[in-house]
Design goal:
mainly alpha; 4 helices; 64% helix
Length: 76
């Protein structure tokens, strides 16, 4: 696991983070880990952008008719 040091946080911010941690029954470190993990997850816009990128890599080819293929297979 890596470590991160954040310098020069003002006392008001630290106090608010400590209060938030206490509200959730966490230590300050646990609370900060949770906040950072949540912030690192892609949001809806990022997920849609990734889906669009993947879609663009997929050839636009007409798909087979599954019903026709099943019928054909059953008739064998």
């Amino acid at each position: 696991m890596g470590q991160v040091i954040v310098r020069n946080l003002d006392d008001e911010t630290i106090g608010a983070l400590k209060a938030r941690a206490a509200m959730h029954g966490n230590s300050l470190e646990q609370e900060l880990r949770g906040i950072l993990a949540q912030a690192a997850k892609p949001g809806p816009k990022e997920r849609l952008a990734l889906a669009d990128e993947i879609r663009a890599m997929t050839p636009r080819k007409r798909q087979s008719n599954a019903t026709a293929l099943l019928r054909e297979d059953r008739e064998r």
